[in-house]
Design a protein that fits this description.
Structural class: alpha+beta
Order of helices and strands: HHHHEHEHEHEE
Strand order of the largest sheet: 1-4-5-3-2
CATH architecture of the domain at 120-237: 2-Layer Sandwich
Shape: elongated
Helix content: 25-40%
CATH class of the domain at 120-237: Alpha Beta
Number of helices: 7
CATH topology of the domain at 120-237: Ribosomal Protein S8, Chain: A, domain 1
Strand content: 5-15%
């Protein structure tokens, strides 16, 4: 089968031939003489489709064709087919172990109240009193925007593997840097306390009390689950250095 480039070249040649033929006819009409014959003695095709063989209706192969085919494939050997599985056997239904594990994990998280209710993000209702904080005299719109993630997080600090004294010192230094840099929104990762004694989140409550004592803290809330959930806190700071 001819390629697209060959067909394009053929179309160009046909166009040139038609232009030459029309030019010869115009010259012959002016001279009132017949156009000279082509070199081959036969007129060339005038249409692009004339260069293709005419369509022929399919007909069944004759006995001679079949004999030629059988002679050509007489030495062919069948391929060795590996044993196949019994398709008639009914397979057991798959056991959704991962789905059951996810459901059990979600049930355990709901029993421990690890994730806040989705309604709290829109209407501002809190499950716990220390889940969010809004300083007096500050517009509630700031806290709602903080919950919805409308504030850009400028920096964050991770307090994992810190004891209480180390966490307090690191947090105070981080807040001093935030004030000097003019950051408005930061994230503090304190963890969920899963590795602490009796699985209690010690730093979670202490970090929130420390933040309430800082005048530059206007509000804070827990981020969405994909942003840390109950293992972090988003803090909105007062503007200006």
């Amino acid at each position: 089968m001819a390629s697209a480039r060959d067909l394009a070249d053929l179309g160009t040649l046909l166009k040139q031939e038609r232009k030459a033929a029309r030019r010869e006819r115009r010259v012959a009409e002016r001279a009132q003489v017949a156009p000279p014959p082509r070199a081959s003695g036969q007129p060339g095709p005038e249409r692009f489709a004339d260069y293709f063989r005419p369509w022929q209706e399919f007909s069944a192969p004759s006995e001679d064709d079949l004999a030629i085919f059988r002679a050509a494939v007489k030495d062919v050997q069948p391929l060795r087919i590996a044993p196949r599985a019994d398709a008639g056997r009914v397979l057991p239904s798959p056991h959704a172990r991962h789905r059951q594990a996810d459901e059990l994990a979600a049930l355990a998280a709901s029993q421990l109240a690890m994730n806040p209710s989705p309604m709290s993000w829109d209407i501002g209702a809190d499950i716990e009193d220390d889940q969010s904080f809004l300083r007096g005299g500050v517009s509630p719109d700031l806290l709602r925007k903080l919950r919805r993630g409308e504030w850009t997080i400028n920096a964050e600090i991770d307090l994992h593997h810190h004891n209480q004294d180390e966490a307090h010192e690191a947090l105070m230094e981080f807040m001093r840097m935030a004030r000097l840099a003019g950051w408005r929104c930061v994230r503090i990762i304190h963890g969920k306390g899963l590795s602490s004694h009796q699985k209690l989140p010690v730093l979670r409550n202490k970090v929130r009390r420390w933040l309430q004592h800082k005048d530059e803290v206007l509000a804070y809330c827990e981020p969405r689950p994909n942003g840390g959930g109950s293992g972090a806190v988003l803090v909105l700071l007062r503007g200006g250095k």
